[in-house]
Amino acid sequence: MPASFAPSAADLLRYAPETVLTVAGTLLMVLDPLFAKKSPKLFGHLSIAAFLVAIVAAFQANGAQGLAFSNLLIVDGFATYFRVLVLIIGIVTVLLSYRYLDREQAETGEYHALLLFSVSGQCLMVASNDLMMVFIGLEISSIATYILAGYLRDDKRNNEAALKYFLLGSFATAFMLYGVALIYGATGTTKLDEIRAALLTRGADAWFPMVGIAAALMFVGLAFKVSAAPFQVWAPDVYQGAPAPVSVFMATAPKAAAFAIFLRIFTTAFNQIAGGWEPLVWISALLSMTIGNFAALTQTNLKRMLAYSSIAHAGYVLVALASHSDDGTAGAMFYLAAYALMNLGAFAVVIHISGKGEKHVRIEDLAGLARRQPVTAALLTVFLLSLIGVPLTGGFFGKFYIFRAALQSNLVWLAVLGLLNSAVAAYYYLRLLVVMYMHEPGDVVENLEPLTPGLRAALILPAIGIFYLGVAPGAVLSFAKLSSSFVR
Amino acid sequence: MNLLDLVIALPALGFVLALLMPRTQENAIKMLALGVSLATFVLSLGLVNGFQSGQTGQQFVTDNIWIASPEIHWHVGIDGLSLWLVILSTFLTPIAILLSWKAIHDRAKEFSAFVLLLEFGLVGVFAAWDLFLFYVFWEVVLVPMYFLIGIWGHDRRIYAAVKFFLYTMAGSVLMLAGIIFIYLRVGTFDYVQILAAISSGHAMLTHTEETLLFLAFFLAFAIKVPLFPLHTWLPDAHVEAPTAGSVMLASVMLKMGTYGLVRFCLPMFPTAARENASWIVALAIIGIVYGGLVALVQPNMKKLVAYSSVSHLGFVVLGIFSFTQIGLDGAVYQMLNHGISTGALFLLVGFLYERRHSLAIADFGGVATVAPWLSIMFLVTTLASIGLPTLNNFVGEFMVLQGSAQANFSWTVFASLGVIISACYMLWMYQRVFFGETNEEVKHHVPDLSLREWACVIPLVVMMVWMGMYSQSFLPVVSEANAKILDQSKMNVPLRVAAPRMTEHAPPDLSRPPVTAAAAGGRADAR
């Protein structure tokens, strides 16, 4: 193909969401000095607008599915699903952040710009067809998140979290990159479809053990990003230390994107060597579920407990990956959406009660919430029941699809242990319900401010989403099922 | 949308309406809840009226697709087995609301809403004919009961509520795995089709698979029943729950377990059910005797009634696993009887608690002199509970014992001990609470029944007498459904009938005893 400096219109359309986010992010940086003092909320509004435009763009791009920019990008249903998911997470994160940034008197311009850049990186990541693009997307997403994790510069815990996340994240990226290099050395390409074709025609044994090592290294890098055991150690510290809206953003958007690319790489490029990586994922899934759930049992800090719970939920998604089937992929996609919504909602309540400087993040600080703010408590109940996996919530259907896929792939033991794990998990989620409903109000709840509009929206929208996924999962599921066929 | 859909949907609607009402309108919310539950009850009577006796299979069927893929249906219907359990749920819900009128003032809005949600789940459990839908309702029941115990319960309510939730959850996740496994094998959640596939051999379950699946379902149900030694959540939950919670828990929720055994374990896994019957029956008999003996030494009235439930539910399990028509009929009848009489016991104990603010037997004495009507009602209920002829429990217990005697006479001997023990603990409690010296506290704080309390008690007492005197109003449709279930539960076993008995606890005789005439046509409908 002759080199052309002007990309085709179709290419630009397929790249539209990233363009929108990058332009909006840059615009925010320019506007920052002009409006930072006058109207700090403006940047939030602008980001929401940008996310909404990007969602429209993502759907438009989905209308023109195909490869873009010399096969570096691929826009298919799978990419669209995750693009829309991370964009929605972006919107809710902005809603969550209004009150938080206001309370901490933090600057808003850079914050929102970084958020937009991070999400654009994730959009790029889920739509990449080339390991180099994966790397670029991952880095755009990660670097912005490193900064966000330490956004309140004067806060010791923020600094610690950012530093830990940065150091360990760099290591993980290095592992990933090492894997990419080995793959390039072996097959001479970094394009996913070409790697797949190469492995298919010559067989993985031709490059023994290089391809295996490469896959293992990439597994390590990605497992770190999704905080799967045994690479989960950073997550509790970082989630606890980072600003709460950033914690939940980290626990949802980069995780969803990393899982998306995890699925794409391993089920397309490395499909040929599935026998090698499936046991790894199996073990990692079981470890994540077990470590996450059992460690969460003893936590007293809400953010830390939710961090451990997010490790456990990563384990459930890995169960879907281990089942290595269309249904498994669809289950993982569905679950990541449900998981993102319930986590966002739960963290919204944490942000609501935590107060300036996040002083009130112990579980007991929720005491008696149901008496003083019954609606907030009821919404948190919805999120917790969904996290437990009670029917009529999205969390239940997600688990159901995942374990169905696991049983379908004859992973009976993994399914049974996973289901028992979810019964263990019920205990620590119930503790929150106990404290909220069955304890008398404590000082924190007595002096609680009313819900601000932003937080209210950040509670109600995910709750609606969870009921939608729980009662009428058909539409989302059939889209996921359809898209799952793109990655195999 | 037929009548049954309405009966299921109305409580859900009431739940939403109650949540939307302003919390200051306490009385209006209670009236709404009472009105909705009464309307549901009246509607459910239409089910009795329209129920066609002599037809096999479910009636009032609605079968719509809920989720397209995997295909999950809103498939509800009732047969003779579920009919009375649905009625039991709708009958007791208004009573539960009425009896807590005075006791519950704190967060009355949530209370009313949760009771209605509970009713929605219970009716749904008994009406669902899609395994997935069944599981959904099964879990939905858990949430309101958890809150009822945890918010409005007594001192150790939190411990009891969490224990209740975790126990049930642990059991049901394995059932979920079983449901998914069956789905993957048969390709549908529809229970009628699953049964057809299993009985015709299309499901191709190996013996090990069948046993494991049976155990997965059985564990979930046995925890709910509760079968000894899985009963330890029950005394805690009962004692700590508010009166309405205890009533609903004892009367209806425990029946979810026994209903599940009859509805699912027997027809789906006939071979495994029969092979495992011996140890299950042994546990049931241990439960009968053990529950009775522990009840005997309880100083707390509620705990005493709770342990008596363990004992009574043992009879139900014994009847079910006797695999005889009369035993199964008796078991189902005993589910209803226990619902009525133990519900009434918890209710009356609750009335005593509201007066004296104590559940300890030692704090009472001589109540009969200050509150004669309360004492008479309590006496009737006590006599019903210990199985006095002409009252309801006698019929059920007698049938269960007869059925177990047909299967294995030694079972009957041991189980009969339970009847004797139950007379001991109930009458002894009655004596200590209602007779003897009237202490000062009782004299001043225990008035007789109020009009509202009468309204709660009378329907229950009427039912005790009716069900004891004329069981024919209820039993024929139950027998029909049971005959069909028994029929399905031996489809896969002709090979085993011929097998020689090897142990003394051999499976019971498989030849079905003569069934009632009405049940003669009971063969599985080949849908």
**How many domain modules of chain A?**
1
**For the report, how would you describe the main beta sheet of chain A?**
2 strands, antiparallel
Helix content of chain B: over 70%
Can you give the mean pLDDT of chain B? 85
Q: Would you report the number of β strands of chain B?
A: 2
Q: In terms of structural class, how would the helical and strand content of chain B be classed?
A: mainly alpha
Main sheet strand line-up of chain B: 1-2
Largest interface: A-B, 36 and 34 residues
* Shape verdict of chain B: globular
Biggest beta-sheet profile of chain B: 2 strands, antiparallel
Q: How widely separated are the two ends of chain A?
A: 27 Å
Q: How many DSSP E strands of chain A?
A: 2
Query: With helices defined by DSSP (H or I, 4 residues minimum), what is the helix count of chain A?
Result: 21
State the assembly state of the protein chains. heterodimer
